[in-house]
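Handout, section 3.2

Students often ask what a structure token actually looks like in practice. Rather than define it abstractly, here is a full record for allantoinase. The first block is the sequence as you would receive it.
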Amino acid sequence: MVRGRRVMCGDHFAPREVGVRDGKIAAIEPLGAGLQGARVVELAEDETLLPGLVDTHVHVNEPGRTEWEGFATATRAAAAGGVTTIVDMPLNSVPATVNVAALEYKRLFAQQNAFVDIGFWGGAIPGNKADLRPLHDDGVFGFKCFLLHSGVDEFPHLEADEMEEALAEIKTFDSLLIVHAEDSRTIDRAPQPNGNVYENFLRSRPRGAENIAIAEVIERTRWTGARSHILHLSSSDAIPMIRSAKNDGLDITVETCPHYLTLLSEEIPDGATAFKCCPPVREVSNREKLWEGLIDGTIDYVVSDHSPSTLDLKDLGNGDFGVAWGGVSSLQLGLSLIWTEARRRGVGLERVVRWMATRPAERVGLRHKGKLSLGYDADMAVFAADESYVVDAQRLNHKNPITPYQGKVLSGKVRRTFVGGREVDYETPTGRLLGRGQA
């Protein structure tokens, strides 16, 4: 049983007692009701009880590239950041999760190293249309595709017509296609990103590449009537057409990430390849429009796109943006990052939780996660909203100590995390592997 003066109840906070039995929330009563438990957790005056966050965009990279991350380190980092459920991307593991055999192989590595609950995405690539339904039946939460080179050769991209075929196929069993939306031809014609000047890299991934690709996703979704989702929105230019598509009744959603909502291209130093990601961090005016789209509901939720690599792959010695791996590691920091920026804008913690727990859980069909509610999984984070700390990459649980947030002062710290009613001790993995049908 957990007792505290600030427990999240729907869209507000109230003094409550939360009873947990067999990993589920069994009772929620006013503080003072006198619920009894084999174990009682008393929140401190400065602590808030939140539902565990749900991060549906995580690259764990195991098996095959475990030196980049791995289930043990990724799920420890998730728990330390209040994330109690992740959904793992089908790349950059080897083999990529594009058939049932690869999914089952990945589960072998995950099952003994899960400190939080883990679900899996399948991949849609050229030639695997016949594998989509079997993957769906084996429990993936949907399918990811790229509209340009993915960065790894074992996960080739789809052309727009192939994406439409995938949408038509997954509609037959009501799955979800999630799309890395950048147009390959636009990027092929853009300037090369070589060198240590960030502005050159930014020009190599123009907003137009996103805008064209997102327009393709919208129209192919319209033509097929399928369900789609746009990953890691970086270009604010696309917000009006996404809003229009939603107004037209299309079943389309969109996410963005902490790096697009907190970082600015104008402040990225030369050679600082820790900041490189694709699509890129853009200008301050773009960031402000992304916040507007998030607040007005056009952007549905916020996830990490945790895309780690080894230090060598970040080309730290030369700082060449054309050579360095593109990806930001932020799985452990997401809640603090968004809360720091949100409170500065007068946005309440309840909205942050909606963006980072409730909405992603709803979109992918995690019906018992993302809320503190009767019958839901007892996934909880004890959060000290007013505590501040300085980011130190060496003290994070990520396998490789590199982050663009090094030295930043952030507000809000996760003090304890519970998954299925058990407190994460970072030594005994008690997380579960989730299949869509059981979730």
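Discussion prompt for tutorial groups: The chain is about 30% helix and 20% strand. How would you have guessed this from the sequence alone?
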